[in-house]
From TrEMBL:
Gene Ontology MF annotations: kinase activity
Lineage: Archaea, Methanobacteriati, Methanobacteriota, Stenosarchaea group, Halobacteria
Keyword annotations: Kinase, Transferase
Signal peptide: none
Family the entry assigns: Belongs to the carbohydrate kinase PfkB family.
Residues of the Carbohydrate kinase PfkB domain: 1-295
InterPro entries, sorted: KDG_KDGal_kin_Halo, PfkB_Carbo_kinase, PfkB_dom, Ribokinase-like
Keyword Transferase: yes
UniProt KW Kinase keyword: yes
UniProt protein name: PfkB domain-containing protein
Length: 317
């Protein structure tokens, strides 16, 4: 039995070396990359046993993705499919003014046909937390229903449900996302959401503290975490808002920072830490992730403890 079970797609990320262009590169670095598996790995590194669920093509590329995740120490429970393909994305790095460009190639991926009945629901109901993100229902109409059914099954089994809103404009419009996500909200206990998404997709107004209060009270979440980029994060729980600053870091790769934050937060809550302490661990893990290439937070708890000991502030109001 795992503390945490996550569900979603993991792609293969192909990146040209250094700042080369996609159209001229002659080689790619390949890494597994997916929000839900990233969260599982971060949580596992911070002391919570984790399992990742997904539907994956029975192909060399599918086996490549699953094999890499297993190397990180999490358990994988996948439905192997002879239909659909392995999703990929291409990451082209560039400094200002070019910036970083992401090109998705995930249409008709095997995960888009996944249905709740294909999975061992007991795994979800035996876990302490079930987690997925807003990326999953954005991928297909089938996955919208599957996400709903899995959240319902978790709640019926007494499992706490956690959800990262994780809006991706390349996948769907704000209107589509708002309509779908709000239907999922009754099945969610813990919501993680970026302040910009609460404002631009859900139409909430106010500063991060107000956003957290409004979301928590209007949708009956147990906990709401609003992330604010360089301005840190706030966590709402039992009517109290806790603020957490970011930790100073030298950025090597920002991809996966939010997943590292969420995975660490869930892990420390599973270990009985209060909201301010869980936010400290989340922020410190996110800072460490920014020093690591790839999508995965390959950190240790000792390293995170050291970052926290070096300084940072949290405020409750």
């Amino acid at each position: 039995m795992s503390d945490l079970v996550t569900f979603g797609e993991t792609m293969l990320r192909l990146s040209p070396p250094d700042n080369e262009r996609l159209e001229t590169t002659v080689e790619f670095e390949v890494r597994a990359a997916g929000a839900e598996s990233n969260v599982a790995i971060a949580a596992d590194r911070l002391g919570a046993t984790a399992t990742w669920l997904s539907k994956v093509p029975e192909t060399p590329l599918g086996r490549r993705a699953v094999g890499e995740l297993r190397q990180y120490g999490i358990e994988t429970d996948v439905v192997w499919s002879h239909r659909g393909r392995q999703g990929t994305y291409y990451l082209e790095r560039g400094g200002k003014p070019r910036g970083t460009n992401v090109v998705y190639d995930r249409e008709n991926a095997a995960i888009t046909t996944a249905e709740a009945r294909e999975f061992d629901i007991d795994r979800i109901q035996d876990a302490r937390v079930f987690f997925t993100t807003g990326i999953t229902p954005a991928l297909s109409s089938t996955l919208r229903e599957t996400t709903m059914n899995m959240l319902k099954a978790a709640k019926q089994g007494g499992t706490t449900t956690a959800f990262d809103f994780n809006y991706r404009r390349k996948l769907w419009s704000p209107e589509e996302a708002e309509q779908t996500m709000t239907k999922l909200f009754p099945g969610i206990d813990v919501l993680v959401i970026a302040a910009r998404d609460a404002q631009n997709v859900l139409g909430f107004e106010g500063d991060p503290r107000q956003l957290a209060h409004k979301l928590g009270s209007q949708h009956n979440f147990t906990t709401v975490v609003v992330t604010c980029g360089a301005d840190g994060a706030v966590g709402w729980h039992d009517g109290v808002v806790h603020e957490q600053d970011v930790y100073e870091t030298e950025t090597v790769s920002q991809i996966g920072t939010g997943d590292a934050f969420t995975g660490a937060f869930i892990a420390r809550r599973l270990h009985g830490e209060d909201i301010p302490t869980a936010l400290e661990y989340a922020a410190a893990t996110a800072a460490l992730k920014r020093t690591i290439p790839g999508d995965v937070a390959l950190v240790t708890k000792d390293e995170v403890d050291a970052v926290i000991a070096e300084g940072g502030t949290a405020v409750s109001r």
